[in-house]
Specification:
The protein is an alpha/beta fold. It has 5 helices and 15 strands. It has one domain: L-arginine/glycine Amidinotransferase, Chain A (5-stranded Propeller). The strands form 5 sheets. It has a 3-stranded mixed β-sheet, with helices on one face. Strand 4, helix 2 and strand 5 form a beta-alpha-beta unit. The N and C termini lie close together (8 Å). Bound molecules: citrulline. The site of citrulline has 19 residues, from loops. It holds the Pfam family DDAH_eukar. InterPro entries: DDAH-like.
Length: 253
């Protein structure tokens, strides 16, 4: 069960965030409303939400998931691969000191964005992507091992982050899309294959038996409902314009 969630309000500069989506610039006012609804939905799932102020220095700073990995025993501050995002982690480290006595850090030349990390019990799958390099993944695995966890790498070819195409919903249920569907690493999961026309919906989040699902993906919504979860629909259209989704917008622990 998760007790805490940390989010950061989107900033006006988000319109200049990194994107490959080709969906135009986000509407800041609408993004703010969608973010407020996201927070309300998380509260419904029984977690305490810590809301950080918008940070205009970093256009992508609402995507807090990338700057730290929060485990049951420690928090690991990452070192973002995207240069315009490097520095977002500094304040997060201070915030996480309120929740963790053990805080670790990824060091140069390692880069990691925690959107590339999927927790499955005590094991962590780490995507090797344009943002997370081999050195960063290796550092991450040795830190995890120090706390009794394990980690393994999953090379990415197309996706931005590992969790752009995977979401673990507990109970062995795994939403899986695109390049990951045929990857034998995931063969023992109960795979819920996300149809190609709903690819973005692979980025859902499990929060205490609720599953937050992005608005506009009825097939995925139905498949998750059938598994018995309480489905919460959240509109993330403005964050999608920046390649971001439900998982990217929070740290859950
Ligand atoms: C970026 O490119 O870094 C942001 N525009 C989107 C980050 C999405 N984060 C995530 O998937 N964890």
């Amino acid at each position: 069960m998760f007790k805490n969630v940390i989010v950061r309000k989107p900033c006006k500069a988000m319109v200049n965030g990194i994107t490959s989506a080709n969906l135009g610039k986000p509407d800041f006012e609408l993004a703010k409303k969608q973010h407020e609804f996201y927070i309300e939905t998380l509260k419904k799932c029984g977690v305490k939400v810590t809301i950080l102020d918008a940070d205009e220095k970093y256009p992508d700073s609402c995507f807090v998931e990338d700057v730290a990995l929060c485990t049951k025993k420690c928090a690991i501050i990452t070192r973002p691969g995207a240069l315009s995002r490097r520095g977002e982690e500094v304040e997060m480290k201070e915030v996480l000191k309120k929740f963790y006595s053990d805080i670790e850090e990824i060091k140069e030349p390692g880069t990691v964005e925690a959107g590339d990390i999927m927790m499955v019990g005590d094991h962590f799958y780490i995507g090797l992507s344009a943002r997370t390099n081999k050195d960063g993944a290796e550092q991450m695995i040795s830190i995890l091992e120090k706390y009794g966890f394990s980690g393994s790498v999953v090379p990415l070819n197309e996706m931005l982050h590992l969790k752009s195409g995977l979401a673990y919903l507990e109970n062995n249920n795994l939403l899986i899309a695109g390049e990951f569907i045929k990857n034998p690493v995931f063969k023992d999961f109960n795979k819920i294959i996300i149809p190609e026309d709903e690819g973005y919906a692979a980025n859902c989040i499990w929060v205490n038996d609720h599953v937050l699902v992005p608005m506009g993906y009825p097939k995925t919504q139905e498949a998750i409902k059938k598994l018995g979860y309480k489905v919460e629909i959240v509109d993330t259209s403005e964050f999608r314009k920046l390649d971001g989704g439900l998982s990217c917008l929070s740290l859950r622990f």
